[in-house]
Every structure is written in structure tokens, then in C-alpha cells.
């Protein structure tokens, strides 16, 4: 890397150019003002679609007709999560065709995509722009990817496409149901995965759009979560995904006493600060601790006869139950985390599919995230300024995507219930390995040994000043962890930048350095967070 | 008018510049290829919408904050049809503020908008770009408007906005229900009008978007037919429209024996040509003859156990009944023509709201209109080349908009059931006063005295060669009319161009000349078609 580095508003050294594209350093929350226009795709004409029937024989023909060639940017969505069958197939075809240096622009990648490492090795894929969960993150971390990874939040991905930072040449949209015109949804069919919101930007802005389905029905496919008016080709395939694998990561309430304690403390804090009240809203996520918190919320709501106006998904069986019992009026859902979520979205008009445009895009006239009262998020590390990391572990490895995490920081109260240490590595540090989100947006850290409230939230501190909760300063929490575990070593990192972390406005909030692998087998640290 | 005139592909003399903007003459169906990019609005930021609450005290404050100034383009939608209360109010405020030379860009205008003539007289409004039904059309026809009128189809309006031909400065969207974020729909509330599809382009592309509602509810307003992410201001008003007046024009089955005969002949033709079959689709419209045809279709479908896959609205009680009885799987509806349509769209997930983008935009990757098997349309005049006019009467007066009429011409079989003469004026002429649609797209003319099939439709002629139907050439029909009524006089028109008629691709298919009013009171000719 010979690119110039500059210090951004958080004091992080970030590159001014990546993969040949100029980058703007993070300037502070809400400080960067875009002074340009949206990306404008070429105008097309119905003269080229006279019958409205866009069926083509197979995926290879669709890719060839879409003009697949070296260096193109190819996008996919991740609603199948670890059950996606399409992305690997696309690059298998590209490899077979001898195409080189593609940029893969998924909305997230999972262990099921590990095979794409082969296509990076043989030159078919140049690099990945998108969240990398697991093996691909490890590959990137070790500096093996030809280009530099670019990680964005769900909202940041929409923003990047809308703003033309990423220009998608070909979008391939796995669609559980579609018609020959290209209208598509995720609600029905053997591979139903709920919704297709992560492919919305792709459909609207990509040069060519291919819909691949294993459930082709007569026009009209209702509802059209993806509108056929954006679609060039429709391909019928045998199987596009394994919906049973959308249940990845923890989708059961934790049984760990420490984590249950964290969940209890979080709930008590919300209650004492009067955040759980009629008409409130919350987003909890799908980790074991988050699910416990949602469960405790439910108990309180039932007991005190409190109704939430809305809850945000990723949906799961617990949220569906709350919706069906009338504890929440609406479930505004960006992705279904289990098959109960899929069923509910199909059947219940109050379980509404949303998209990164409605929920998270920072370059819009507001978004839903800022309307949520309480958001519960995870983190791998937090520093004493409340800056938090969700991407790298303390050993420096990039193993998780951003998901909607950054976008959710704009909610009214942001709470991070996290263990004080994981595998004897303290989670609260002087400095985090990677800053994914600025501390000024993070309000509360809840650990099993105490709660730290961001001093900026004087209102919360006031509301809780007589509380029996173990409220401490974040420095106190850090010292407590270090007293038990010792001061953690810094990870061994090279200067080489292997990925950058974009902020919600497209600026660069941090850079990820290449890991210098330990010679001995190092123990895996920490546990997975569910963010994508 | 000193602008240069050129002959377009239909031999009509059209201007190369209108209102200071270059114009492209019609080049033939599917011949004009756009070689430019979509309009790209300025990128905005959530930093300017931190709370997501966009309520502002009143419409005047919203207009002032949106930067209302001389010469701006202001858009409104017409889902209230003749019951709209908002457009006049906007220009009343603008007039009060001393603003001049606004361009009003409605999706259609109605007699309820006659007051806007006062605002054209006092200089507040410069001209109207949009369908002008009734008094505003008359005002324009007589050359009293400062600028030249530009008439577009519903699809052409979307195309013009998407392509940047019309740049909307401020869109004001009357919304029967909305939340403070700006999410809005037409389904519920005291002024429910069904849907808001005609305002879709406005929301997506206007610089500033104001939602005005008389039914403000808590976030989230579900469904969001208009997405709050596009909205700048939300205004609570006492009353935005009179939904009982969306029932404008004929919404009852005709009782005229001639028209019933036309409807019978049309139905018989469709049946003999095997167009009414399982899985077929149709769009009939709301005139008395069209309703009779829909009624006859229903009888056949019931009798022969035939189900349509979909019917297209404008919806009305008859289509709703067919949907509810399972004779059609889906009703794909662009506007509700009566309150039964509104109710059905609110209650029935198979009654689906569409937009000019999905249904009609010619600069997309196909649209729904081309998927419809049978479309029934009206016309004020047809010429011997099957070119048809829906805008002007034979006296030259511009009294109707285009509506979806041009867009529907792309359906598989286009049938115009029309009387052979109206008030003793023949409808089939050597030349129509105005060409709204090219004859190559019009397949069948059905009159009470015979049926003319376009010679281009050899398949239809073959299918009907042994038919007992009174199939004649269009010249024979014309001669028959002239034998009864005499050869009609041409209207008295000046050279001055008062309006242009855009084709679906933004080219100019015809120009409308100023009418030289007769000195004696001339009888009104013909009757209204329902197209907007």
C-alpha cells in the first residue's frame, strides 16, 4: 500500500484512496455533507422488452447476455444467509468462461461462500466489497485478497449504490417466487426466505438485473418486492437456496447465567429510565442475550399492559409471538432470522417488509432507524470513549460484517449488553482494534459486573441517579476487567491495509490491517455476534 | 409562435421547441432510442432530518420552507379526480404570496380546478403541463394560457419526470392517511381515495416533497404507498378532498340501444377470436359502453367457467364484484373510479395498487400494459389509417386528457368501441383533428353499423373470416357515416399552437392549434370519454 494516510475525526489513520477510488475520511457524525447528485442509470426503453417475457434458458446465458466481462461488479443478496446457493454458482460460471478480476458486491457473505476463495485464487474474483463473515474475512485478514475489502453497513450499501460510489454491472437476485416479467418476492415457494429488501438498490441501480427463481409463476407475482420493471432476465433454476439455513448463529435465548444477568440488568435499566412505555419501539437482534432481553421486555409489557407501536426485525419466533399476541402493533422487518419469521411475513399484514432504503439509508430524508426508542446491539470491543468494534476480534481478524449495526446507532437509546471479557480477554479497552461506530452515538454499556452510561446522556444519568443498578464509569469497568484478566496484548498487525470500514455516509471510519499470524496455533477468541 | 415546425413520422407538423425547451418529433412506434441517463436528484442527508418528524404548521409554511419562488414547477396528483381541494389552495397561497409564473404539473386536471384560470389571469400560474379536462382545456384552446400546454399520458408523465424532461421543484401530495415521517396511503381516513400511484414519480424525483393529510396517524402508516424517505414536510389539514367526487363521468352501464349493440359486437368479436379464455387479461375502463362490455365478459366467463388471470383498473363496483366472485385472480389497479374500488383495495390483497411506473412507463424494462390481452378504449375521432384522437373534439376544442390511453395501446389487442357518429358528426374521418395514438397500434374499431379490423392484424382477420359479424373496411364505415351525416366540416383553427401531445417516449406526436370561436353559439359536440 503506497496510498496516503490521513487522520480522520476519530484520530484513525485511513487511506485517501482504495482500489483506485478516492476516499473521504470520516468527519464526525452528521458533519459530511454530500454535494453531488444520485447515480443515474441509463434510460432504457420498452422497445427492447416488447412482450414483457424475460425468460432465458439458464444463468450462464443470462450472464453472457448481460455482457459479463473482466473487471465487472457483480452483486448478490444474503437473505438466504448461510443457505445461499447462487453466488458460488455465478463465479463458477464466470470462472468457466475465463472471466477475470470481478468485484463481488454481496450484501453480506457467509461460510457457505468459502468456495469463492478458490475463485479469488484463480483470478476470477479480484476482491469483495461487502461484509465478510468467517472464512472470507480470515482470507482477507491475512492479506490474500488482490484488492482491498470495503465493508459497509446495510444502509451504507444502499447509500453507496444510490450515490454511485459502487456501480453494479450485473445484479443477480435469488428470488423464491417470480414471474416471467421479473416481479419477485421471498414469501412463497420452496425456498421462501421472507423478503428481498437487500436487493432493492441492486434492482434499482444495476445496469443489468437477473432474477433467478426456483418457483416461476404466471404474471403477476404478488407482492412484487422486486419490481419486474427493473429486471432484464429471468432464469428458472432447480434450487436457489436452502431456507432452513437462514437460521444461522444463535436463535435461542441464552442459558448462560452471566448473560442472563446482563439481559436482566439491561431490562431493569430500560424500565427504570421509563423507556418501556405505551407506544414505544425497540430493535433487539438475534443473539442469545438479545433474545433474553426481548423475552424480559415481553414479561414487563404483559404485566403492565404496555403495547409497543412497533418492533424492528430481523424477525424470529419470539417477535412473531409478540406481534400475534398484540404486544406490538407492527413488526418492521429487514430480514427474517427463522422460518417463523418467513411464515408471519407471508400471512400477517402487520409484519411488514422493509428495505435498507426505508430503514437505514443515511442519504435520504430521514430513515426508520432514527425513530426507534431502544436498540440493543453487540460489540466485540468497546473503548473508554464508547467507540465500539463489531468487525474485528481482539486478535485483529476481520470475522464479522457491519450489518445494520452502524445504522441502528441513530436510534434514541443505544444499549450494548456485552460480557466484560471473553475467553479472559477484556472487552473494554483503551483503544479498540477497529472503530465501527463512534462513541458519541453509544449510550449504555451493560456488563455482568456493571453498567456504564455515556456521560453525554445526562438525561439517563439523571433518571437513574437513585437507582440500585451497578452504574459505574467505563474506566471503572475497564479497570475491573484488567484486574481479573490482566492488560490485554495488542494484536500483531502489519501496516498493510486489507479492508476499510465505511461510515453510513460513505466516509472512511477506520482501516483494517493485515494480521501477522502467530506461529503457534492461536486459540479462537470470543464468540460470534449476529449482525448481518 | 415563431418556433420551427417539422413533419413527424405521422406527417403532422409539430414544433421543435416549446416553452423554451427543445422537442423531438415522433419518429414511429419504438423508433426513438433514448441515449441519456435518468434524472438524478441531489443527494440529501439524514443529518437534516434527525428526528424523522416532518410536521410543519400549515401548507403555507411548507411551501415557503420548500423555497417556493417565481417560475417553479409545482406538481399535484388527481386521485380525487373532481373532488380535489388541494391544487386550488396551493395557487391561492402562491397568489397571496405574490409568486408569479408557476408551472402547474398535475397528473390531470378537472372542472373542480376551474378557479386556477383566475391564477393564470393574475400571473400566478404561467401554464399547465398535464391533461386538461373541461374548462381549463377550453381556456387553453382559446389561446389564453401564457405558455403552451404539454399533454402526456400517465406513463409519459412518469417518463418525463424520470428522464428529467420535467423537473419538479415542489410536489404536494394529498394523502388520505399519513404519519409524521411522511409515509402515506390512500386507503384509509375520511378522504380515502384508494391509492397514490400518480404521485409516485413526484415523490421520487421532486426537489421538495410536501405530504398534506387530513388523517395524521402515529408512525408507521402501513402500507406506505408513498415512502416517507422521500418526504420533506408533512402538513395536517382539515380536508384534502371530497372522495365522493372521484365518481366523475359515467360509471353506470349504458342504456342506449346503440351502445349496447356496440358492446355486444365487441364481446362477440372477442369470443369468436378466442380472446376470452382461461388465464386471459383485460382492461375496460369506466365509460357506459366499457362497463357493458365488462358485464358481457362476466356473463361469458361465468357460463363457460373461464377465469381471467388479471383485470386492470381503474376499478369500479363491477370489477370488484368479478374479483370477489373469483372470476379474476387479481385486479391490478391504477386508480379507483368509485368507493367500492377504494373499499376493495383496502380490504382485498388481490386488489393491488399499481403506479404509472409499473404499468405504463415506456422508458423502463417493459411495463404491465404490454401484458394485457384485451384493452377497450374510447376515441373522439378515428381516421382511415386507424390513427385516433382522444384529446380534441371535432370542433378543435381540447377537452380531454390522455390518461393511460396511449400506454394501453401496447396491449395485445386494442379495441375501440365507438359510435359511428355523435350529434350527426361522423367519428371516422379522412384525418383526425389531433392524433393521440398511431393507427398501427389500434386493432379494431367497433361501431353500431359495423366493425373494422386493422389490415395489419391478419391473424384477427383470419380468425374471423367466417364470422357473421358485420366486418367491413374502415373506408366502408366512413362512407356509411358520411352518407347519413354528410362530409363533416373541418374545425376553424389558427396556426397558433396552444398545446402539444407527447407520445409515450417523450417525442411530439401532434400539436393542438388555437380554436377560432364561432360568432354564433355553437352546439357542443360529442360526449365525454373517461380516460384520466
Essential attributes:
alpha/beta; globular; 532 residues; 23% helix; homodimer; 21% strand; Glutaconate Coenzyme A-transferase; 2 domains; 14 helices; 7-stranded parallel β-sheet; 9-stranded mixed β-sheet
If you had to describe this structure to a student in words, what would you say it looks like?
The structure is a homodimer of 532-residue chains. In chain A, the strands form eight sheets. Chain A has a nine-stranded mixed β-sheet with strand order 18-17-16-15-19-22-26-27-28. A seven-stranded parallel β-sheet of chain A has the order 5-14-13-10-6-7-8. In chain A, strands 9-29-30 form a three-stranded mixed β-sheet, with no helix packed on it. With 532 residues, chain A is α/β, with parallel strands linked by helices. Chain A contains 14 helices and 30 strands. Chain A has two domains: 52-246, 3-Layer(aba) Sandwich (Glutaconate Coenzyme A-transferase); 257-485, 3-Layer(aba) Sandwich (Glutaconate Coenzyme A-transferase). In chain A, helix 7 crosses helix 8. Mean pLDDT of chain A is 94; it is low at 522-532. The radius of gyration of chain A is 23 Å and the shape is globular. Chains A and B meet through loops of A and loops of B.
Q: TL;DR?
A:
Chain A is α/β, with parallel strands linked by helices and 532 residues long. Helix content of chain A is 23%, strand content 21%.
Question: What proportion of the residues of chain A is helical, as a percent range?
Answer: 10-25%
Low-pLDDT stretches of chain A: 522-532
Shape of chain A: globular
Instruction: Fill in the CATH topology of the largest domain in chain A.
Output: Glutaconate Coenzyme A-transferase
The amount of beta strand of chain A, in percent, is 15-25%
| Count of helix runs of chain A | 14
CATH superfamily of the largest domain in chain A: Glutaconate Coenzyme A-transferase
Number of domains of chain A: 2
Based on CA atoms alone, the radius of gyration of chain A comes out at 23 Å
> Any guess at the CATH architecture of the largest domain in chain A?
3-Layer(aba) Sandwich
Tell me the distance between the termini of chain A.
29 Å
* Main sheet makeup of chain A: 9 strands, mixed
The largest chain-to-chain contact, stated as pair and per-chain residue counts, equals: A-B, 62 and 62 residues
With strands numbered from the N-terminus, the spatial order across the biggest sheet of chain A is 18-17-16-15-19-22-26-27-28
> Which CATH top level class of the largest domain in chain A fits?
Alpha Beta
Oligomeric state of shown chains:
homodimer
Amino acid at each position: 500500500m503506497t496510498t496516503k494516510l490521513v487522520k480522520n475525526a476519530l484520530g484513525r489513520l485511513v487511506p485517501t484512496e482504495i482500489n483506485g477510488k478516492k476516499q473521504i475520511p470520516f468527519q464526525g457524525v452528521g458533519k459530511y455533507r454530500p454535494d453531488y447528485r444520485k447515480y443515474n442509470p441509463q434510460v432504457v426503453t420498452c422497445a427492447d422488452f416488447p412482450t414483457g417475457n424475460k425468460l432465458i434458458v439458464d444463468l450462464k446465458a443470462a450472464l453472457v447476455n448481460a455482457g459479463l466481462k473482466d473487471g465487472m461488479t457483480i452483486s448478490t443478496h444474503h437473505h438466504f444467509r448461510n443457505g445461499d446457493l447462487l453466488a458460488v454458482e455465478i463465479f463458477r460460471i464466470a470462472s468457466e468462461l475465463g472471466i477475470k478480476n470481478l468485484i463481488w458486491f454481496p450484501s453480506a457473505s457467509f461460510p457457505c461462500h468459502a468456495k469463492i476463495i478458490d475463485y479469488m485464487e484463480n483470478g476470477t474474483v479480484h476482491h469483495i466489497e461487502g461484509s465478510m463473515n468467517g472464512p472470507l474475512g480470515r482470507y482477507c485478514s491475512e492479506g490474500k485478497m488482490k484488492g482491498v475489502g470495503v465493508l459497509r453497513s446495510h444502509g451504507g450499501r444502499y447509500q453507496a449504490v444510490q450515490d454511485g460510489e459502487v456501480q453494479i454491472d450485473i445484479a443477480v437476485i435469488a428470488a423464491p417466487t417470480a414471474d416471467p416479467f421479473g416481479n419477485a418476492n421471498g414469501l412463497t415457494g420452496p425456498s421462501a426466505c421472507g423478503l428481498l429488501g437487500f436487493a432493492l438498490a441492486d434492482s434499482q441501480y444495476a445496469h443489468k438485473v437477473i432474477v433467478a427463481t426456483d418457483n416461476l409463476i404466471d404474471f403477476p407475482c404478488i407482492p412484487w418486492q422486486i419490481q419486474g420493471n427493473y429486471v432484464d432476465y429471468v432464469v428458472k433454476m432447480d434450487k436457489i437456496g436452502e431456507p432452513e439455513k437462514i437460521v444461522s448463529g444463535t436463535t435461542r435465548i441464552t442459558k448462560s447465567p452471566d448473560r442472563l444477568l446482563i439481559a436482566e440488568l439491561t431490562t431493569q435499566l430500560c424500565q427504570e429510565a421509563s423507556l418501556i412505555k405505551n407506544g414505544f419501539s425497540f430493535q433487539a437482534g438475534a443473539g442469545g442475550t438479545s433474545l433474553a432481553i426481548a423475552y424480559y421486555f415481553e414479561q414487563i409489557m404483559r404485566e403492565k399492559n404496555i403495547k409497543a407501536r412497533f418492533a424492528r426485525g430481523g424477525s424470529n419466533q419470539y417477535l412473531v409471538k409478540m406481534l400475534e399476541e398484540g404486544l406490538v402493533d407492527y413488526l418492521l422487518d429487514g430480514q427474517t432470522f427463522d422460518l417463523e419469521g418467513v411464515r408471519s411475513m407471508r400471512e400477517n399484514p402487520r409484519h411488514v417488509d422493509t428495505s435498507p432504503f426505508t430503514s437505514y439509508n443515511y442519504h435520504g430524508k430521514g430513515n426508520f432507524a432514527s425513530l426507534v426508542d431502544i436498540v440493543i446491539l453487540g460489540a466485540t470491543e468497546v473503548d473508554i470513549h464508547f467507540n465500539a468494534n463489531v468487525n474485528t476480534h481482539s486478535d485483529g481478524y476481520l470475522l464479522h460484517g457491519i450489518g445494520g449495526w452502524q445504522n441502528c446507532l441513530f436510534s434514541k437509546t443505544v444499549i450494548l449488553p456485552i460480557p466484560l471479557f471473553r475467553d479472559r480477554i477484556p472487552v473494554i479497552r483503551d483503544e479498540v482494534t477497529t472503530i465501527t461506530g463512534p462513541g458519541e452515538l453509544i449510550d449504555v454499556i451493560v456488563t455482568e459486573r456493571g453498567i456504564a452510561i455515556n456521560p453525554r446522556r445526562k438525561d439517563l444519568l439523571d433518571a437513574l441517579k437513585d437507582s440500585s443498578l451497578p452504574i459505574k464509569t467505563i474506566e471503572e469497568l475497564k479497570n475491573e476487567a484488567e484486574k481479573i484478566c490482566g492488560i490485554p496484548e495488542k494484536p500483531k498487525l502489519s501496516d498493510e491495509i486489507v479492508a476499510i470500514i465505511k461510515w453510513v455516509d460513505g466516509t472512511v471510519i477506520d482501516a483494517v490491517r493485515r494480521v501477522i499470524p502467530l506461529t503457534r496455533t492461536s486459540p479462537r477468541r470470543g464468540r460470534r455476534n449476529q449482525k448481518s
